[in-house]
Amino acid sequence: MIYEMTMQVRVSGFEKGQHWYTTLLKREPDFIPHEGFAEWELLPGCWLQVAEGSPSQNSGPIRLGVVDIEEERKRVKEELGVENIVLHSREEVPVNWGTFSDPWGNRLGFFEYKSEDERNERIRVILGKTQ
Are 112 and 121 spatial neighbours (Cβ–Cβ below 8 Å)? Predict the structure, then answer.
């Protein structure tokens, strides 16, 4: 039985990396077990780890679900200097998405549901709301 998951990105300058991800995620880490390592619990049981080290090549992307992808694209451009987030959409896919890289080459992205009703239903299910 799988009941939790972690995803890890590596950064060559940990202090800068922790600050960058704190800004991206709009909050401080939930857990810093030792020097050079920080974790955020993005959803119950779903952790993003930022570790000091050599970034992996050609991994990812890790895409984060957002309510307004245009607003987030604008925010990361202004606050983090992220350029060239090209948004994509396909008729048969229920989300719009875009991919970008952090300063260390880790591939990240955002996605948003095209349907507000579908997004709200996903949030309800994830949060365990029965009504």
Answer: no
Q: How many whole angstroms separate alpha carbon 62 and alpha carbon 68?
A: 17
Q: Please report, in angstroms and rounded to a whole number, the separation of the first and last CA atoms in the chain.
A: 27
- Residue showing tokens 């930022």: 50
Strands 62-65 and 107-113: parallel
Q: Which domain holds residue 26?
A: 1-52
Residues 68, 19 within the same domain? no
Give me the sheet containing 107-113, strands edge to edge: 62-65, 107-113, 95-101, 86-89
φ and ψ at residue 8, rounded to 5 degrees: -130, 140
Say whether pLDDT at 121 is over 70: yes
CATH number at residue 88: 3.10.180.10
- Give the Cα-Cα-Cα angle 82, 85, 87 (nearest 5 degrees): 160
Whether residues 47 and 14 fall in one domain: yes
Count how many domains the chain has.
Answer: 2
Give yes or no: residues 90 and 129 share one domain: yes
For 41-61, the pLDDT digits (tens) are 999 899 999 999 998 887 789
